[in-house]
Amino acid sequence: MSYILGIETSCDETAAAVLKDGRHVLSNIVGYQYEIHGRYGGIVPELACRRHIEVISPIVENAIKKADIELRDLSAIAVTSGPGLIGALLVGVSFAKSLSYALRIPLISVNHLEGHLWAISLEKRVTKPFIGLLVSGGHTNLYLVEDIGQYRLLGSTLDDAAGEAFDKVSKILGLGYPGGPAIERCAETGDPKAITFPRALSKKKGFDFSFSGIKTAVISYVRAMYPVSHIDDIPGVLKGEESLISDIAASFQQAVVDILVSKTIAAAREMGIDRVVVSGGVACNRVLRGEMSRHAQRYGIKVYIPGPKYCTDNAVMIAWVGHRYYKKGVFADLRLNPDARSSIG
Ligand code: KG4
Ligand code: ZN
């Protein structure tokens, strides 16, 4: 029997979870910081770190309590060591190291991206290899996933991540933070065909993405109608223009979804693999979920997307990957340092 404690503090969520035998989720606690960063329209690293320090201890305690176990029952501690905000990662890694030392149990270093790619395993069994699209606030990566620890990076964003584009466009439209859910909600009443925003690199060979141009296109579109001198003035001039805002949100969302779907399906076809896993916060998006499945079906490709609670940042996915390394006996030691730019594949 094994009990793995997962700890995740790479960005703005403080999360802890207990996973029994690599299968049973005994607890899954996530502390959000929306109210802290909301007023700035994006994450303020310094504030994120301070909040992690304040809540990490009660969140871990809560995860242990909810799991109905004692600290001494734990078999190992799996912690996100990167990529992410360095100060934020440091909080989780330091906490995990202290606990591992005090309890004399193994410490396991988990890459955050690896956690996202395998989050689906908490709900479904996916045969390997598969194509993994990781779409979050910090990453837009396409992988050939062969096994735990075996990834081939097929493509990634050359500039902004898909989630970052949602967050920036939401800020421009005055829809608030986090931008993904806000844009999705607003787009429900808009026409996705109202405006044709660019689908960058979609005609190009290869699997890289680019999302900064679409953000600029949104700004240019509004400015052509309302010649404001600064983009911070855009929400003001759009006040009362609810249907225009919805059309922009829906058209923007459609363009991002089209790019993500076409590149992912192209990668699966080129690699001759009929299984696609989509993960990361943007995978919560219902239009993306629907369109990915619809297009994939045409080519006999099966699409797997975790439920929303395992798409966004959580510690269960970290504990799951941790359990795999626990079985393999791959442990870190107390010299473990977070790496803000660590990658896989
Ligand atoms: O995976 P995640 O929780 O954290 C990172 O590792 O970045 O992803 C957060 C990102 C944010 O950019 C957020 O706007 C986006 O995921 N997101 C969405 C949706 N829900 C969250 N984007 C589009 N549609 C959504 N429904
Ligand atoms: Zn993430």
What is this structure's SSE topology?
Elements: E1 3-8, E2 14-20, E3 24-31, H1 34-37, H2 45-67, E4 76-82, H3 86-103, E5 107-111, H4 112-118, E6 130-135, E7 140-147, E8 150-156, H5 162-173, H6 179-187, H7 212-225, H8 234-238, H9 242-271, E9 275-279, H10 286-298, E10 302-304, H11 308-311, H12 316-328
Parallel strand pairs: 1-4, 4-5, 6-9, 9-10
Antiparallel strand pairs: 1-2, 2-3, 6-7, 7-8
Helix pairs in contact: 2-3, 4-12, 5-6, 5-7, 5-9, 6-9, 9-10
Descriptive report:
This protein is α/β, with parallel strands linked by helices. 44% of the residues lie in helices and 18% in strands. A five-stranded mixed sheet has the order 3-2-1-4-5, with helices on both faces. A five-stranded mixed sheet has the order 8-7-6-9-10, sandwiched between helices. β1 and β2 (14-20) form a beta hairpin. The longest helix has 30 residues, at 242-271. The radius of gyration is 20 Å and the shape is globular. 5'-O-[(R)-(carboxyoxy)(hydroxy)phosphoryl]adenosine (KG4) is lined by residues 11, 136-138, 163, 166-167, 178-181, 184, 280-282, 284-285, 312-313.
Identify the CATH class of the largest domain. Answer: Alpha Beta
Shape assignment: globular
Structural class: alpha/beta
CATH structural fold name of the largest domain: Nucleotidyltransferase, domain 5
Number of strands: 10
